[in-house]
Design brief:
This protein is mainly α and about 55 residues long. The protein is built from two helices and no strands. α1 packs antiparallel against α2. The longest helix is centred in the C-terminal third of the chain and has 28 residues, at about 30-55.
């Protein structure tokens, strides 16, 4: 399960980065903000998984 969550975090981060870059490219602030939010969500998920790994080791 942890590997699945880690891969989901990486996917969210990558999708967020793509949205953010696309938003900047076309000048769409809403898309840029959505990208930043998605990246933050991925970052939070990754931090949660790292914490769980540290506590179980």
């Amino acid at each position: 399960m942890a590997a699945d969550e880690k891969s989901r975090a990486k996917t969210e981060q990558a999708k967020g980065k793509m949205k953010q870059v696309a938003g900047r490219t076309v000048g769409n602030e809403r898309l840029t903000a959505e990208g930043r939010a998605e990246q933050a969500k991925g970052d939070a998920r990754q931090a949660k998984e790292k914490t769980k790994d540290a506590l179980t080791d």
